[in-house]
Design brief:
Largest sheet: 10 strands, antiparallel
Strand content: over 45%
Radius of gyration: 17 Å
Structural class: mainly beta
Distance between the termini: 64 Å
CATH class: Mainly Beta
Order of helices and strands: HEEEEEEEEEE
CATH architecture: Sandwich
Number of domains: 1
CATH superfamily: Lipopolysaccharide (LPS) transport protein A like domain
C-alpha cells in the first residue's frame, strides 16, 4: 500500500510539474496505480479518471508514458472510454491514444466524436485538438458517418 501511494504521488508530481501545453494541473484517480520510474510508465486501473482543466478522460485503464518527466503518450482502454471537453467535445470508443506533443487523439472500435453538434462515427477516428480537424476511417460496411445539424432558422 505504501509503495502504491508513493508511486501515485510521484507520478502526480511529475505530471503536475509539466502539465503540458495547458499549464493546468492533471489530476488522476483510480482504484490502483503503479509507476515504473525507470521506464517512466504510469498505469492506473479501475474506474480510472484523468482531469485537466475542462478535459475529463474516463476508462477502465489509463497508461501514461512520461518523457523527461513530462506526459508524452496517454492511452486509455476499457469497455467504454470517454473524453469530454466541456461544451466543445465528446469522444468515445474502446481505446483512445492521446499524443500530447502533437495534440492528436486516436479513437478505436466504435469511435465517436461530437464536436459542437457535428457527429463523426467510424471504426477509427483521429481528432486534432489544435485545428479541430477530424479524420475518420472504416466503420459499418467500411464506411464512416457524419451528421451535420441543420442551421436554426432566424426570423
Amino acid at each position: 500500500m505504501h509503495r502504491l501511494l508513493v508511486s501515485t504521488l510521484a507520478c502526480l508530481l511529475a505530471i503536475n510539474a509539466s502539465a503540458a501545453e495547458g499549464n493546468q494541473e492533471i489530476l488522476i484517480r483510480a482504484e490502483s496505480a503503479t509507476l515504473n520510474q525507470v521506464t517512466g510508465v504510469g498505469l492506473y486501473e479501475g474506474k480510472a479518471e484523468l482531469r485537466q482543466g475542462p478535459r475529463q478522460l474516463t476508462a477502465d485503464r489509463i497508461r501514461i508514458q512520461l518523457k523527461d518527466g513530462v506526459p508524452s503518450i496517454i492511452e486509455a482502454t476499457g469497455n467504454l472510454v470517454t473524453l469530454i471537453e466541456t461544451d466543445v467535445l465528446e469522444a468515445r470508443g474502446k481505446r483512445l491514444i492521446y499524443n500530447v506533443a502533437t495534440q492528436r487523439i486516436q479513437i478505436f472500435e466504435n469511435a465517436y466524436v461530437n464536436h459542437h453538434g457535428r457527429i463523426f462515427e467510424g471504426a477509427e477516428l483521429e481528432y486534432d485538438l489544435r485545428t479541430k480537424q477530424v479524420d475518420a476511417r472504416g466503420g459499418e460496411n467500411g464506411r464512416v458517418k457524419l451528421v451535420i445539424p441543420a442551421e436554426e432558422n432566424v426570423e
